[in-house]
Amino acid sequence: MINDAFQDLLENYLSTKHRKKVEIITKAFNFANQAHKGIKRRSGEPYIMHPIAVAKIVCMEIGLGSTSICSALLHDVVEDTDYTVEDIENLFGPKIAQIVDGLTKISGGIFGDKASAQAENFKKLLLTMSSDIRVILIKMADRLHNMRTLDSMLPAKQYKIAGETMYIYAPLANRLGLNKIKTELENLSFKYEHPEEYNEIEQKLSSTAGARDKVFQEFTAPIRNQLDHMGIKYTIAARIKSVYSIWNKMQTKHVPFEEVYDMLAVRIIFEPKDPEEEANECFHIYVAISKIYKLHPDRLRDWVNHPKANGYQALHVTLMAKNGQWIEVQIRSVRMNDIAEQGFAAHWKYKENQSGESEEDHDGLISEEDGELDKWLHSIKEILDDPNPDAIDFLDTIKLNLFASEIFVFTPKGELRTLPQGATALDFAFSLHTDLGSHCIGAKVNHKLVPMSHRLESGDQVEIITSRSQRVEPQWTQFATTARARTKITAILRREQKNYQRKGEKMLKDFLAKEEVILTDQLTDRLAKAHGLQLREELFVAIGSGKIVLGEADKHILKVKEGGRWKKLLSLPNPFGGNNDKKESKEKDEKDKTQQLQEKKIDPKKTLILTEESIRNNYIIATCCNPIPGDDVLGYIDDNNHIVIHKRQCNVADRLKTSYGNRILAAEWSTHMQLNFLANIYIKGIDMMGLLNEVTQVISRQLGVNIRKLSLETNEGIFEGKIQLYVHDAADVKAICSNLRQIKNIQQVTRVEN
User: Cα separation of 53 and 675, whole Å?
Assistant: First the structure.
């Protein structure tokens, strides 16, 4: 089995255009096979099957060469066996050793068990990525294979791994242009977290495939005739929306499967007659097909002349089919298609063809030609220069930098800048220069004065207005949406706070020195409490910034009188113990958490069974997502050692799975319809006489459900409203939604979070 798998890898490698370095790949396989001998994966198969599978993904799905294939075969050797990076370097050279070293540093997933370690591991990953991009590409292949074989893991582990995959790996794959891998990671994460919904959508896709194929054939027939007439070599393929994308649209748009209308898109992939003219050929095809079908005027996307930040190039146009359906057509050259599927690895391939160099010859470093990727890596380095000390905030800041959608904005001199969708004038200012951002007081967008919080749109021309007297304010973080702007604002504010803190501490010491009193923990805490503050740091900042002026009243708080004389209090250790103390404290907290779990007799490997009694006595229902019986749920052990039950798709739960995976517990319902839970239903439709009466009749009389709150609002003949109900489980909600949809003129019924 092992030899067959390796031979399959070699055959795949030999079918590529890379230089045929079979000898070193075979040497890496033999070495890894010997190192992992006798070790099995959780699934029971020999461990070496995993590195072979990762190497195959690296070769066939990402398109890398022998250096990366060898590194993939060896990626777990240093971590799991007695061999060292030096051994790898002696046998395989410095390049492979460097990549294996990078992969070893971020092994075991991006995130460890402790919050402090998670941020540090992720920082290592990004630092390694910025020196050799192949590290993160191989890590992507490793994660993809782990997701493909997730069946053998315990449910709690599945939720943790699926959660961090959806939160970080899928957006990272998208940013690197690995579209196919991104889509598969999203689908697999969704499959393990919501198996019923996944299967339901997959079955519906399968049952409607025939109708879609008929639409595809009828729509593309005249396009094929036109392209044949033009003498273009091409292929036309149908792109079907992924299961996760469909479900996500159903959630965000509050529509059923049947009302997701953009499931089908058409791709025209052509071979340009002249590589220099491929952009023009895209537009020739666009003009030709726009004579066959009517265009949607607002849906032309020119990613050919303005590639996305992940390198994606294509011309998107939306056309009206004969059946009255809008269909998106994506026009790409073969080169553009390769880049869309394989991302920046494909950039290398095309550079090799031009330069005669192989992937191994340029060390995996990013050149100036890589443009947007280089800018993105530079912005990542800036964030790493001043990482937020809070692990979750740090991950969120990085995640902000993984935006998929971009807008194009112009400077007053006409230079083009790419920003994430939703970016503000303040974000634009910080993208130009930190000094511009920190002194920004507003902007002129298309020559009109706007505040710094103004959201920009594609095509805007923006001029930043500054003032030397302007200072960064804490509320600016609410206006900033980009990672760069938020990081810079936070860094400036933190620097100011530290300066105030140092100044305040010195002022307090000087104040006490005059009274011959030494600063201690107890004194500082007593003084902070007297001024209504919780932390010593807050007290120092308040004194340093002038918000608190020390006076006679403070002397009485700080001194203890004994026998008519002031007692000089002894000094205690500095209240600010430094980072090591904080780190030890965090690690101790996590150890305590494990001990408390053992005391509560909770086995993290077993699934929590949620009964009426356990919900009343042992568990807390999360108010952020209000899960009810029938929902896919998980448990989370909070800082107070309480178990909180969240929906698996809850935004809060997503962050918890990513950052505190060791506290996640598998959970399932086993209630007997005795307890009532709150559920919210949103309805929308055409207003009519007696509508409210019909709604309440269906809910209260037909289904016997109690209404807690009901609000309806009409505007120009359209009504929308929200109903809060007491239900037993998710089946009740489905029945209510189904019955409400039967009421004439109600167009939309869906369950919402709150």
Answer: 48
Checking phi first, is residue 199 left (phi over 0); if not, alpha (psi -120 to 50) or beta? Answer: alpha
Q: What is the DSSP letter of 389?
A: S
Distance between CA atoms of residues 257 and 434, nearest Å: 46
Of 653, 712, 707, 700, the closest CA to residue 679 belongs to 707
In the DSSP assignment, the letter for residue 631 is S
What are the tokens at 294?
A: 């009517």
Q: How far apart are CA 560 and CA 162, in angstroms?
A: 58
| pLDDT > 90? residue 356 | no
HEC profile of 225-292:
HHHHHHCCEEEEEEEECCHHHHHHHHHHHCCCHHHCCCCEEEEEEEECCCHHHHHHHHHHHHHHHHCC
The pTM of the full predicted model, rounded to 2 decimals, is: 0.71
225, 346, 332: which is closest to 270 by C-alpha?
A: 332
Report the distance separating Cα 471 and Cα 452, nearest Å. 13
Provide φ and ψ at 474, rounded to 5°.
-55, -35
Return phi, psi of residue 433, to 5°.
-170, 145
Residue 427: count of CB within 10 angstroms of its CB: 24
Amino acid at 9: L
The mean pLDDT value of the chain amounts to 80
Residue 278 and residue 234 in contact, taking contact as beta carbons nearer than 8 Å: no
Do 2-178 and 677-752 agree at the fold level? no
Return the minimum-mean-pLDDT range out of 283-287, 341-345, 463-467, 567-571. Answer: 567-571
Task: Look up residue 12 and give its two tokens.
Answer: 């795949």
Q: Could you give phi then psi for residue 455, rounded to 5 degrees?
A: -80, 130
303: tokens are: 């990613």
Kindly state the tokens that stand for 80: 């799991």
Instruction: Give me the active site residues, please.
Output: 79-80
Torsion-angle region of 236 (φ positive above 0: left; ψ -120 to 50: alpha; else: beta):
beta
Give the distance, in angstroms, between the CA of residue 213 and the centroid of all CA atoms in the same chain: 33
Angle at 61 between CA 58 and CA 63, to 5 degrees: 65
Each domain of the chain, given as residue ranges in start order, spans 2-178, 203-342, 373-490, 492-567, 579-669, 677-752
* Residue 96, H or E segment: helix 94-105
Query: 14-24 burial string, b = 16+ CB within 10 Å, else e?
Result: eebebeebeeb
Classify domain 203-342 by CATH number: 3.30.460.10
* Top-tier CATH class for 2-178: mainly alpha
Contact between residue 27 and residue 90 where contact means Cβ atoms under 8 Å apart: no
Rg of the chain over CA atoms, in angstroms?
30
Topology (CATH level 3) of domain 373-490: Ubiquitin-like (UB roll) (3.10.20)
- CATH architecture of structural domain 677-752: 2-Layer Sandwich (3.30)
Angle at 431 between CA 426 and CA 437, to 5 degrees: 45
Mean pLDDT lowest for which of 62-66, 245-249, 428-432, 511-515?
511-515
Is pLDDT at 564 greater than 50 in this prediction? Answer: no
646 φ, ψ (degrees, to nearest 5):
-120, 155
Per DSSP, which regions of 586-693 are E strands?
A: 608-610, 619-621, 633-637, 643-647, 664-669, 677-686
Residue 558 and residue 512 in contact, taking contact as beta carbons nearer than 8 Å: yes
Token digits of residue 321: 């089919």
The set of residues, in sequence order, having a beta carbon less than 8 Å from that of 690 and lying 6+ positions away, is none
Q: 126-141: per-residue pLDDT in tens?
A: 665 556 778 888 888 9
